[in-house]
Each structure stands twice: as C-alpha cells, then as structure tokens.
Design a protein that fits this description.
Blueprint (H helix, E strand, L loop, with lengths): L1 E4 L21 H14 L5 H5 L3 H13 L10 E8 L1 H4 L4 E9 L5 E10 L5 E3 L9 E4 L5 E4 L2
Parallel strand pairs: 1-6
Antiparallel strand pairs: 2-3, 2-7, 3-4, 4-5
Length: about 150
C-alpha cells in the first residue's frame, strides 16, 4: 500500500504558505513519535494520539487486521530518513522514517513512517499503521536522503 501525500497545514489564523510553513520534523522528533506509536499500537487511542487523520488510520488498521497483520513485540528498525520539502509536498514539510521490522506473525515488513506538523504544531504521522508495510511518496517522487541507518 502506498499513500501519496499532500501535507497541507493551514488554518484561518495561519493560512498555509511559504512564510507560514512549520519547521520540518527532526529525526529525533519523528523517532519519538514512532516510539509512541509502538507503545500504543494495540491501544484503542492509537489513532487519536499518533495519526494526522484518525479516519485514515482506523481504515489502515482495519485493513491490516483483516489480512492478519498485527504489530510485533519488537520495535521496527529505522533504516533511513527522507525529508520532503514543502515545495515538493505542496503543503507542509514531511519527514519520513524508513522502517524494517517483523509483524506479530513473524512476517517481515518494510514501511515508511511519514511525519509532519499539524496546523496546531503537533507532530503526527501520515502513515501511522507502520506494520501494514505502507509506503509514502510525495506527488513528485522527490526526496532528499538525510541519513541511512
């Protein structure tokens, strides 16, 4: 599954635009949100705490569960980091943690854990159901690699 993103974050008080864009999420901030996601993955409030879109999160989690994919006990490894600038996403900057892990049934997965700041400056994931193997691509398939491993 690949999620194509447009991370527009604006509000009536602060419309989206170059002068009003939030700072990109740092690797440390993205990893902190991932740690929260891992700790809450089996909890009912997972989507409310971690996801930029609760509805999309619930849908992705339901799909993963329908095919028997559940988060494993071991947190996934971060194998790389990509930063997608606002000019590429068409909205707010997006920081993507590239993950590799194992589901509860011992099947391996790779996934993208895409993070951004909401219009309330909260850090949330655009692809929170990491165990589903979801990928994140911007509309132009352009990114800069920040770090691998």
């Amino acid at each position: 599954m690949v999620v194509a993103g447009l991370a527009a974050c604006g509000s009536p008080d602060r419309p989206a635009g170059p002068a009003n864009l939030p700072e990109p999420v740092s690797r440390a901030e993205a990893e902190s949100l991932l740690a929260t996601a891992v700790s809450l993955a089996r909890q009912p409030n997972f989507c409310a705490v971690v996801a930029a879109s609760e509805e999309q999160c619930r849908s992705e989690a339901a799909f993963a569960a329908s095919v028997g994919w559940r988060p494993g006990d071991t947190p996934p490894r971060v194998t790389g980091v990509r930063q997608l600038p606002a000019r590429v996403t068409g909205g707010s900057p997006v920081t993507v943690l590239e993950l590799a892990g194992t589901r509860a049934d011992a099947t391996p997965f790779t996934a993208d854990f895409a993070t951004t700041r909401t219009d309330l400056a909260r850090i949330r994931s655009l692809t929170p159901v990491y165990w589903s193997g979801v990928g994140y691509r911007d509309r132009f398939q352009e990114a800069s690699t920040v770090d691998s491993g």
